[in-house]
Amino acid sequence: MLIQDLSITYKTKTRTIVAVDRLSFTINEAEGIGIIGESGSGKSTIGYGIMRSLPENGSVESGSILFENQNLLGIPMRDFDSKYRWKEIAMVFQGSMNSLDPVFTIENQMREILYTHRKDLPKDKHSEVVENALNSVGLDPSLVLKKYPHELSGGMKQRIGIANALLAEPTLLIADEPTTALDVVTQSQILQLLKKLKKEKKMRIIVITHDLSLIPNLVDKLIIMYAGQAVEIANASYVFEKPLHPYTQALIQSIPKLHSSDKNIRFIKGNPPDLSTVGKGCRFRDRCPKVFDKCVVDPPKFQVDKTMVRCWLYQ
Ligand SMILES: Nc1ncnc2c1ncn2[C@@H]1O[C@H](COP(=O)(O)OP(=O)(O)OP(=O)(O)O)[C@@H](O)[C@H]1O
Ligand SMILES: [Mg+2]
């Protein structure tokens, strides 16, 4: 799947903000991509954009999503709904574990999804598909099917959220902050699960998170977002060894080093710019320890080996 030049804006009464600015990347079968960045950097917006699920005031201003010779942004919404949504691309939304409907059992909710999104599937197959989805996220169907959401733990609800996304066997799964608010053990179980899906079902997986320490074992590539722009796109192993963008370097340094005596977390001073007022030049320059005169001009994308970096240091 090839995402090219994707720009997404939100309009409010007083202003328009560019939440995602000309983003391009590819994701192959059985590949995991992590999208990392601070709050408000545009991570969820990328997911909504790919899912064609932007809120009313959001719109795709440019770009294409090429999948099997189709531009998924160019086809009528009806076709996208019937052929791609959930079937090819599914998303576990941020906070989705709190969005299960409290008045229906897990079984009812899952059957409802199948009923709406798998019209191709004969009804007598529904139980089997629901049970398979629960099994694949490590839940015992007999223990959860008759339960209501409030009877389940946070980790179980998050697994249900993922099981729901798997019901139609998508080829791309977007997981938005899949482990936030879960304890450490449950976090690692969820990450293991995503890893297994990637490997065994050859699924493409996009994990969105602000916590870089969660994903080294899960993702192959990283997209580092800053103020709506990808400032670095690189192989994950490469980023941890040799981060190029000063923002990426600061992010890596802010991961607490569990096995060293240095337990200080180094936060990056300052805040990202207000997206409604960003002007020309590098968006990170006010916080950048390596800022120099060139930075008042918008940095283009530079290619350093296999890494894309948006920083004048690499001209
Ligand atoms: N419906 C909306 N209307 C106007 N602005 C919005 C809307 N949704 C998001 N934004 C703005 O767009 C920018 C990107 O938001 P987005 O939710 O994609 O960030 P994020 O990286 O997912 O943040 P977080 O880590 O907090 O989830 C932010 O500045 C946010 O305030
Ligand atoms: Mg978000």
From TrEMBL:
It is a peripheral membrane protein. This is Oligopeptide transporter subunit ATP-binding component of ABC superfamily. CDD domains: ABC_NikE_OppD_transporters. One of its GO terms (biological process) is peptide transport. Keywords: ATP-binding, Cell inner membrane, Cell membrane, Membrane, Nucleotide-binding, Translocase, Transport. The gene is oppD. The keyword Cell membrane applies. The keyword Transport applies. One of its GO terms (molecular function) is ATP binding. Its main location: membrane.
